[in-house]
Amino acid sequence: MTILDTIVAQKKIEIANAQKTVSIPDLQATEHFKRKGLSLKASLTKTGSSGIIAEFKRKSPSKGFIKADADVAEITSGYSDAGAAGMSVLTDTEFFGGSKDDLLKARAANPNTPILRKDFMVDSYQIYEAKAWGADVILLIAACLDSEQIDTLSTKAHELGLEVLLEIHNEEELKKSPLKHIDVIGVNNRNLKNFAESNVNASLELIKVIPTEMVKISESCISQTATIKQLKDVGYQGFLIGENFMKTENPGAALDSFIKEIEAQ
Predict the structure, then answer these.
(1) Which CATH architecture has domain 3-264?
(2) Which of 128, 227, 232, 264 is deepest in the core (most CB within 10 A)?
(3) If we measure between CA atoms, which residue out of 164, 185, 184 comes closest to residue 174?
(4) Start and end of every Indole-3-glycerol phosphate synthase domain (predicted)?
(5) In the chain, where are the structural domains located?
(6) Cβ(190)–Cβ(197) under 8 Å?
């Protein structure tokens, strides 16, 4: 069993438990459920966009805690102030140390920045949660979903006014994925089955087969501004980066310096 298999199995248990205590009508009755979502796609493609989706992440399965006592409001506000095009907030607790409260606090602190709920989405119930917690975008990971699930979940997200980021790691995952309700395609440079690899080769290879009209982002294993230039040159408009900023004393300041270095290139 891979790490991804373990995470998905745990996720299904968590969803079943959550549904026993909070119904979909309960989620629909929340204040955030009524708000109009922000567009990550528009933020990434507008003139002058930094293209950076800055991630708030306390820990990872492969490296343990990165910043256990991180203040989500403070850090995500720093990201917005620095010019992040969007933010990614982990809500998985067991493996990444995130929570519903992290997303709610990030939303409250950043009313004008698109926010991705970063989690392992395998059930429509989670999409209702994402909307109720203030997310603008959901993540669908092709490695743990079949074609029908991708279609069903992306359709439901659009029905609820959420955008969809489809994450792929290889050409096979792209080919099996219905793209009708996909807003952004992300290439994860890290193999989620073993959390190995530390380069952007996957992004550089897959750009050749992703439809040209799709908005494309590169995820993980990005720490140098030279890599951003390399990825931009081949057609990427966005770059999801978390650990590179989270491991610093002041993630917002680290992002600010990173963006200024990009602009100076």
Answers:
(1) Alpha-Beta Barrel (3.20)
(2) 128
(3) 185
(4) 4-255
(5) 3-264
(6) yes
Q: Whole-prediction pTM value?
A: 0.95
pLDDT confidence of residue 192: 62
What letters, b where the CB count within 10 A reaches 16 and e where it falls short, cover 198-229? Answer: eebebbbebbeebeeebbbbbbbbbeebebbe
Q: Report how far apart, in Å, the C-alpha atoms of 166 and of each of 42, 77, 204, 238 are.
A: 16, 26, 17, 13
pLDDT tens digits, 139-195: 999 999 999 999 999 999 999 999 999 999 999 999 999 999 999 999 999 866 555
Cα–Cα distance between 78 and 101 in angstroms, integer? 18
Q: Which of 57, 59, 67, 156 is catalytic?
A: 57
Of 167, 176, 165, 121, nearest in space to 7 by CA: 121
**What's the token pair of residue 85?**
């095009």
**Tokens of residue 190, six digits:** 């890290």
Q: What is the pLDDT of residues 36-52, one digit of tens each?
A: 999 999 999 999 999 99
Please say if 213 is a catalytic residue: no
CA distance 116 to 255: 18
3-state secondary structure of 240: strand
Looking at 129, 163, 167, 243, which residue is catalytic? Answer: 167
- Numbers of helices and strands, H then E, in the chain: 12, 10
β-strand 64-65 against 59-60: which pairing, if any?
Answer: antiparallel
Q: What is the mean pLDDT of residues 55-77?
A: 90
Question: Catalytic site residue 188?
Answer: yes
